[in-house]
Amino acid sequence: MKTNLLIGIVFLTLLAYKANAQSATINSQIESKKSETMQQIFIDKFIVPEKSKQEFLERVRINRNFIKHLNGFVNDNAYERTDENGNLIYITIAVWENETVLKNAKEAVQAHYKKEGFNISEMFERLHITMERNIYKESEKI
């Protein structure tokens, strides 16, 4: 009787372990699918010296016009202000359908730069522009 009880406990423990492992796998798959379908919000913040403003804004215009035609582009917005030192603080927000199309868009932009012979790092260094770049997702409703 004790042997049967012990075998039963071991069997139930194994079933519970298998169920937990399957649950963890399913949860991982759900999270993976979520990131594939969740919109990606690409936010850049630039600090641009006054003397560099005109060239910078021309480049922004070119870039924004280019990305609007890429697959998976949802929309974009730009915001600006001038700080106490006269620098332009410029924020762009581009929304993409999901992580995959954002990755493809980044590659397309880099290919476009290469085709143009444009080097963004060189431009930022020459014009003394600094940038902070991050990718966000929409926050859950509170």
Mean pLDDT: 86
Beta strands, count: 4
Distance between the termini: 54 Å
In what range is the share of β-strand residues? 15-25%
The main sheet comes to: 4 strands, antiparallel
Q: Tally the helices: what do you get?
A: 4
- Reading side by side through the largest sheet, how are the strands ordered? 2-3-1-4
Helicity, as a percent range: 40-55%
Q: Return the string of H and E elements.
A: HEHEEHHE
Q: Which structural class matches the secondary elements?
A: alpha+beta
Shape: elongated
Low-confidence region ranges: 29-35
> What is the CA-based Rg, rounded?
25 Å
List the helices and strands and how they pair.
Layout: H1 2-37, E1 40-48, H2 53-67, E2 73-82, E3 88-96, H3 99-116, H4 120-127, E4 130-136
Antiparallel strand pairs: 1-3, 1-4, 2-3
3D architecture notes:
The protein has 142 residues and is an alpha+beta fold. The chain is 54% helix and 25% strand. The chain has four helices and four strands. A four-stranded antiparallel β-sheet has the order 2-3-1-4. The radius of gyration is 25 Å and the shape is elongated. The relative contact order is 0.18.
Spell out the key features of this protein.
4-stranded antiparallel sheet; alpha+beta; 4 helices; 54% helix; 4 strands; 142 residues
